[in-house]
Amino acid sequence: MRRLAPSLCALVFLAVLCADATAQATPDIADLSLEELGAVRVSGVSRVDESPEAAPASVTIFGPREFERFGWATAADAIDAAPGMLTVSSAFVNRAPAIRGDLRATGGLHVLVLLNGRPLRGSLDALSSQDLLVQIPLAGIERIELIRGPGSVLYGTNAFAGVINVVTRDREGRHAAVSGTLGSLDSRSATALAGLTTGKIRLSATGRFADHPELRRTFSDEAGESHRISLPAREAVLITSLRTGALGLDALYTHRNAPTLAPFLPGIPREPFRADGWYLNGSLEGVIASGVTGRGDVGYSRTRARSSGDVNTRTSADDILLEGTLFIRPAPRLRVLTGGTANRLSGNATYLGRQALDYDQWVGSAYLQGEFSPDPAWRLVAGGQAIEASHEAVQVVPRAAAIYQGTSGLGLKLLYGEAYRSPSPAETDIQRPPILTGNPDLRPERVRTAEAVFSIRKARGNVAVSLFLSRQRDLVATVPGAGGTTTYRNQGVFLARGGELEGSFQPSPRWLFLGSLSYQANRLDDSLSDVGRSPAWLARAGVSWSRPALALSLFDNWVGASPPASRLFPGIPAVNPRARAYHLVTARARVRLGGTSPHRLSLTAHLQIDNLFDEETWYPDATFARVNTLPWRPGRTITVGLAADWRSR
Predict the structure, then answer these.
(1) Cβ atoms within 10 Å of 441's Cβ, excluding its own
(2) Confidence of residue 111 (pLDDT cuts 50, 70, 90)
């Protein structure tokens, strides 16, 4: 922190000097206050628009104000700024989310990503959250809702530790924007978006291409042999959204081309890997009767992935999700949500030219949630979901909440929720000897979480404190099997407890302060402590000063030390540095170069420095448990960018 203090002071001093020197122009959305942006709403908790204080979950919401001021480019950047949340790598180049220390599952399988409220869930990994979060661009996003706690009551499997809802942006009139960046470590990106709103038709599209900063580091494998790595990662994404009256259509395409490292395979340190994902969801919504609204959804996802080289792995999955939902208002103070799903999962995988996986499964569910308001200040919520799969026994998960919202801005939430995660087909059935074999006897993972949230919201800012206690059982983990083959196994009871403090303060449209502090501790089977592989402490702090012609910001993401992998795997080779605490500081300056009227063409340029102090970061090997730590995050990256934005009403 001693290195950070001079930077903060210099930034504030420079902002004061520039306060009277900037030219006046029409303010953009990044310069507006909360009151000018309008009331903040969240839709991913109960599938209806509601205030964050009234939602039966702990929620953090970021929007264009934060995206623009702090230079966040993808959903993963927003997660790394939220309390109790962190993205880490599971294969060097991916970023899997961990919520409240839950880093027990690989590939982000405990976090469900939604696009406009619909699940982006593939039965194999090409549409997994670890890929989506680093690919989804925030340029065309209205807000990202970061929901902590179980969400299976409405969303089923994978909504285990939390849910991330990405909501696309609708703007009045016509809008188009293009931007490009060029940076060190061979990084570059290009983003384009367009939107049209006329009458009942709302259409938007956002695309992004990126070469991420290369990870250049030396690490040692389990035999102690050193490898000098230089890992590029190329990704592309296209998101489109169409609304016309009662009809809706969302489409997503993702592409990733990157090497994957295999430190558990001597002599094969990297394999080129390509993954493509397609997602399509159509919806129809309308009034069925007085006080009853219905919605039907048809979703399809297709994923294809392959690696070239000696391993030659190919995976393919095609999944269909059908869902019907009723929103019922039988009385002014009572609201009921009920519905059901039918989900078909099918796919296959080959390894070394031989079939390693082939599956075809069905999953069905029914859910019910009721909300009752005995008076304007109180809201009571209760609900549950029953799930039946062709390969599992019936699972039932409940939810309950009592929520108080005072007229003075004080709020209280008492929350209880359960969730589950079905073992994936790869975990139960894959056969890749001598590397990995599935376990058909795996049981579904289960979690119970109790939570209390205290909040204060005022016109210029808000503060919230959350305390939680979570009990997870039958967690699926990778463990060494016979003959050195890795396999999967359910592991006992995992207890986690902790708290989060978060707040934001905007004394004027020029200034914005964000901050949070998070703590978690965990124990496995009442014997092993701090085995979650995630740091106990996280702290985030950001300050931004903005005028129409100039904006400056500094954001510090401090990640505490992670517990050693030897806590869970005694005797694991300690061949790499420990996972020590580190600061990831981002400094950004944005300058408006000019603009025109009436079509409001604006040109901006920015300079951004990520990992300002060039920290070298490591994290525990959470994937194969063959070495103590793996390298993570590139070094200091300096990026320059240009953007053009055009709007017309």
Answers:
(1) 10
(2) confident
Going by C-alpha positions, the residue among 352, 249, 229, 339 that lies closest to residue 294 is 339
DSSP string, 201-225: EEEEEEEEEEEEEEEEEEEE-TT--
Residue ranges in 60-207 assigned as alpha helix (H): 64-70, 75-79, 129-135, 152-155
- What is the length of the chain? 649
For the segment 274-321, what is each residue's pLDDT rounded down to a tens digit?
Answer: 888 899 999 999 999 999 999 999 999 998 888 766 667 788 999 999
Report residue 344 as tokens.
């078909």
64 DSSP 8-state letter: H
Q: How many Å apart are CA 614 and CA 617, to the nearest integer?
A: 9
Q: What is the pLDDT of residues 225-255, one digit of tens each?
A: 787 777 778 889 999 999 998 999 999 999 8
Contacts of 171 (CB under 8 A, 6+ apart): 195, 197, 204, 647
Phi/psi zone of residue 528: left (φ > 0), alpha (ψ -120 to 50 degrees), beta?
A: beta
- The residue type found at 84 is G
104: left (phi over 0), alpha (psi -120 to 50) or beta: alpha
Residue 541's identity, in one-letter code, is A
Q: Rounded to the nearest 5 degrees, what angle is found at the Cα of 82, between the Cα atoms of 153 and 367?
A: 5
Greatest mean pLDDT among 181-185, 211-215, 475-479: 181-185
Rounded to the nearest angstrom, the gap between the alpha carbon of residue 587 and the centroid of all alpha carbons in its chain is: 22
Q: Residue 149, SS3?
A: coil
Which residue, among 248, 253, 303, 302, has the nearest Cα to 275 in the 3D structure?
Answer: 303
Range among 134-138, 193-197, 268-272, 498-502 rated most confident: 498-502
Query: Cα torsion for 328, 331, 334, 340, to the nearest 10°?
Result: -20
In sequence order, what E strands does 354-485 have? 354-375, 378-389, 395-405, 410-421, 431-432, 436-437, 445-458, 461-480
Q: What is the DSSP letter of 442?
A: P
How far apart are alpha carbons 463 and 239 in whole angstroms?
33
Q: What angle do CA 360, 361, 362 make, to 5 degrees?
A: 140
Which of 399, 398, 397, 402 has its CA nearest to residue 414?
402
- The Cα-based distances of 346 to 5, 274, 314, 478 in angstroms read 54, 20, 15, 23
pLDDT in tens, 345-403: 999 988 777 888 999 999 999 999 999 999 999 999 999 999 998 878 898 999 999 99
Strand order of the β-sheet with 118-119 is 58-62, 141-148, 162-168, 111-115, 118-119
The mean pLDDT of the chain is: 84
Q: Which of 621, 525, 524, 623 is nearest to 565 (CA)?
A: 621
Q: Which residues contact 136 (CB under 8 A, 6 or more apart)?
A: 74, 75, 166, 237, 239
CA torsion sign for 218, 221, 226, 232 is: negative
**8 A C-beta contact, residue 202 and residue 248:** no
Q: In angstroms, rounded to a whole number, what is the distance separating the alpha carbons of residues 614 and 607?
A: 17
Tell me which residue of 43, 124, 19, 59 sits closest to 403, measured CA to CA.
Answer: 59
> Both tokens of residue 254?
């993702």
Helix (H, G, I), strand (E, B) or coil at 98: strand
Residues 6+ apart with CB under 8 A from 138: 67, 72, 73, 74, 75, 77, 78, 144
pTM of the model: 0.89
For 220, other C-beta atoms within 10 Å of its C-beta total: 18
- List residues bridging with 632 in a β-sheet: 617
